[in-house]
Amino acid sequence: MNEPDLVQLLTPTGERLDHPDYSPRVAHLDPEALRGLYRDMVLARRFDTEATALQRQGELGLFPPALGQEAAQVGSGRALAPQDYAFPSYREHGVAHTRGVDLVDVLRQFRGIDHGGWDPRAHNFHLYTLVIGSHTLHATGYAMGVQRDGAVGTGDPARDTAVIAYFGDGATSQGDTNEAFVFAAVNNAPLVLFCQNNQWAISESTDKQSRVPIVERGKGFGVPSVRVDGNDVLACYAVTSEALERARSGNGPTFIEAYTYRMGAHTTSDDPTRYRSAAEEEAWRRRDPIDRLRLHLEATGELGQDFLDELAAAGDALGVRLRAEVKAMQAPATSTMFEHVYAGAHSVVEAERAWFEEYEASFTDAPASTAGATR
Known about the structure:
Elements lengths: L30 H26 L13 H10 L5 E3 L5 H6 L4 H9 L8 H4 L10 H15 L14 E6 L6 H12 L4 E7 L2 E2 L2 E2 L9 H6 L4 E5 L3 H16 L5 E6 L18 H8 L3 H11 L5 H24 L18 H19 L2 H7 L1
Parallel strand pairs: 1-2, 2-3, 3-7, 6-7
Antiparallel strand pairs: 4-5
Helix pairs in contact: 1-2, 1-11, 1-12, 2-9, 4-12, 6-7
C-alpha cells in the first residue's frame, strides 16, 4: 500500500522546504509571527505539563495531555478568522489558547466543578466534548446553518465564515463522524474536518482501525482530503488556511489528516508503556514540533535571548497562576445541576429543583442531635 503524500514545509531539523501550493500561504509570516507560533507552542506545552502535575497531586480528577500535538493545534488555530467557529473534542488545549480562552478555565471541567468554564460565544470556540465523535455532527449542523444564513461565499472577508471540527483517529471509526462526512459532503457545508492522527486511539493503533491511511476515508465520501505533517506548525497553518478559505468561499468541506503523535498518555489514567515501545516514542521525540521551529529560528538568527527569557518568565507565571487558581476553585452548589439542562425554563426541571432544594434544606434545618444520624 502506497503512503499518501505528506505536506511538509519544515523538516525535523528545521530546514524550510518549498511547496508549490502551500509555501505561498506562509510567505507573509515574518520572524515576529514565527516567534509568535513558537511562543504559542511553548506555552501550550507548559500548560500541559502543569495540568498533568496538578492531576498527579490530586487537584484534578483527570487530564488528557496533548504533548507532541502542539504544532497541529497552534498551526490550525492561528489560521482561523475571528468569525470562524471551532468545535473541539477534549484535547485541543493549544487551539483553545489561540482562540483566547483562559487556560485556567479549561481546567474547571477536569476539576469537576463545571461543564466547560468559558463562554463559547465569546471565543467562537465550543465547549469540550467527551463523547467521541459526537461533536462532528454538531459542527456539520452549525456549518449548514452558517451556509443558510448567507454567511458563506459573499466575498466579504469579515462575514464569510468557516467551521472546523477537531477529532482524533479513533473518532473516524465512530458512526457520528461518518454521518458528519455524509452530511457535509452532500450539503457542500463550509466545514473543515481536522483529524489529529496521533497513532493511538487509547491503546488501539491506527493500523487496527483502518486498512487504508486515514486520509483516504475522506475521499470515499467525496470530500477533498489532504495529509499534513502534524508536527510542522507551518504546514498545518498553510493547509488549514487553504481549507478554511475554500469553505468560506462556498466550495465545501475539506478533510485534513494531521499526522502526528501523542507523546503522553491518552489521559492521566492511562499507562502507554503497556501498549507501545520506548523505541517508537524516541523516534517521534526526534520529530518534536517545538524543537523543529526552534532549530529553524536559531538557524536564521531570529531567536534572541531576550525573547527566550521573556518566554521562560511567561511560562513560569502561567504555571504559578494555574496552580493558585485551580487550588482556589470551590465546588459549586449542588442545585446547579439543574442549570443548563434546557435552553430555557422547563416546568419539570424547576419542580425537581424545588424538591431538591427543600430536601437539601431539611438536613440543614435538622436539630444538631439528629442531623448527623440523618445524613
